[in-house]
Amino acid sequence: VQLVESGGGLVPPGGSLRLSCAASGIIFTINTMVWYREAPGKQREWVATSFSRDSMTYSTAVKGRFTISRDYTKDTVYLQMNNLQPEDTGVYYCNTASGVSAGTWGQGTRVNVSS
After folding, report:
1. Of 67, 79, 108, 106, which Cα lies nearest the Cα of 91?
2. How far is CA 17 from the centre of its chain?
3. Strand, helix or coil at 37?
4. Maximum Cα–Cα distance for the chain, whole Å?
5. Mean pLDDT by 10 residues, the chain (115 residues)
6. DSSP label at 28?
């Protein structure tokens, strides 16, 4: 299983970013895909889950601002992040549900929200 996150960067408060996670080595169509983040000095926290193309759920902290989606033609899951705030700063990771249970994580992509 290989998950490669990309799309992070520096953005001012109120700005937007779209993160991508390219998956290989899994059957993408049947896997639940998740995004987590880890802020400096804090524990990793769940952000969003995509159960399928039309079924997703979000943490309270990001609901209404972030959107998780997936492209089955590219085996890629996205996280569109709008109205970013300094508290959204951190390293963002994608994973499968089983990967979370196993405690295996990729390198992540860093998001820095700062003026």
Report:
1. 108
2. 11
3. strand
4. 40
5. 94 98 83 95 96 94 97 94 98 93 92 96
6. G
